[in-house]
Structures are given as C-alpha cells and as structure tokens.
Amino acid sequence: MTETATRYLYLARHGEASPDETELTDRGRRQAVLLGERLRRTPLSVCHHGPLPRAEQTARLVRDQLDDVPLCPSAQAGDYVPYLPQRHELPAESADDMLHRLAQFPAEERERGPELAREALARFAGPVAGDAPRHELLVTHNFLIGWLVRAALDAPEWRWMGLHHANAALTVIRYAPGRPPSLLFYNDMGHLPAELRWTGFPPELHV
Questions:
Q1: What is the pLDDT of residues 22-80, one digit of tens each?
Q2: I want to staple 141 with a disulfide (CB 3.0 to 4.6 A). Which of 79, 113, 135, 192 is the partner?
Q3: What is the pLDDT of residues 94-125, one digit of tens each?
C-alpha cells in the first residue's frame, strides 16, 4: 500500500486585471507582491497557475518573493464553468436567475469546464504520495476556488456558485490521510491594505 501524507493547498485568485483581462493593473501587481510576501515563510514546493495572462503574471510576481519555488502552468487551473446544474438541483426561487447567468458564459467554457473540473480535483485535492507533508500554491480564478471549496465541504456540485473570492485573497484546505478535508481559512485578505481589498467582488458584497 502506497504511503500518503497531508497536502496543504493554498488557493489564490489572480490580482486585479485590466478591463480586457490581458494584464494586471497596478493594483493587481501590488496585490500579487503582497501575497508573495505573505507566503514567504510557507514551505511551498510548487506554484501551479492557470494559463491566462492574469493568472500567470500573478504567479510570477508571487514567486519573485519566494525562494526557488517552481512555476507549473496547468489547464486545470484555468477559468471555466466547473459544473452545469440541472434545474431540479437548484433552489426553486433562484433557479431561473442562476441558469440565465450560466448561459451567458462562452460555450467553450461551459462545454469543456466540467471535464477540467474533474481533472482539477484529481490533480490538486486529496493527500499526496509520500511520507512528508506537502504545501502547494494554486493561483487560479474565482470559479475553480469555489469548486474546490465546495468539494472540500462535500456540498452539492452546483454550490460552487455563490462562493466569491477576492483578488489575491488566500484560502487554505488541508487534506490529511484518513480524515475529511479541513477548510483552514477562506478568502483571507489580511495581507492587503484596505484600499486593495474586495476587488473582484461586486459592490453589494463588500463588507
């Protein structure tokens, strides 16, 4: 039987992006640097990141604050719709609105997303092979963070919706052998000054 050890998965949404999403804004770059400084004392073994510019640029700025942490691009860490619910799965009072919102996303994101999401769970979640704990950073997008948190809490598959993550905020999930996943903290913005918090959220969710 293969020995397994605890995985600590650090989840971060990319920094604030320009309107066309081709690069980070000045605020986004500052957010990424501060996130890297926050993680400086964490024994990270790898920084996975999505292929889009805003995720790659964030990962590089974070890595610049760390010591010899390799970058690992991953299609599974990209921006896509992780699960398409059927109407009967959703709360009756909000089903129409939720399905309408999902229909606005590009067909490619909706069609390929569920397969990538299953691959992401297989790749990033759960204990790791070996006898030593592993700490991994995943710089990704709002939907995938919601999907991984949803899975860790054993919530219904559609419940990735409604889980919002601010730019450069930090979430950590612990996967220990023989135990259910533990959500150690969620959407932590303690490393960001007030003027850099809550970006990436609609205004009505700012608190």
A1: 999 999 999 999 999 999 999 999 999 999 999 999 999 999 999 889 999 999 999 99
A2: 79
A3: 999 999 999 999 888 888 999 999 999 999 99
63 three-class SS: helix
Distance CA 29, CA 76 (A): 23
CA 106 remoteness from chain centre: 20
Fill in the amino acid letter for 14.
H
3-state DSSP percent of the chain in helix, strand and coil, to 5: 40, 20, 40
CA distances from 110 to 85, 97, 106, 190, 206 (A): 11, 17, 7, 33, 28
Residue 113 is inside which H or E element, if any? helix 107-124
Cα 55 to chain centroid distance, Å, stands at 10
Name the one residue in this structure whose structure tokens are 């970006």.
199
Q: Is 67 helix (H, G, I), strand (E, B) or coil?
A: coil
pTM for the model stands at 0.95
The Cα 54–Cα 62 span in angstroms is 12
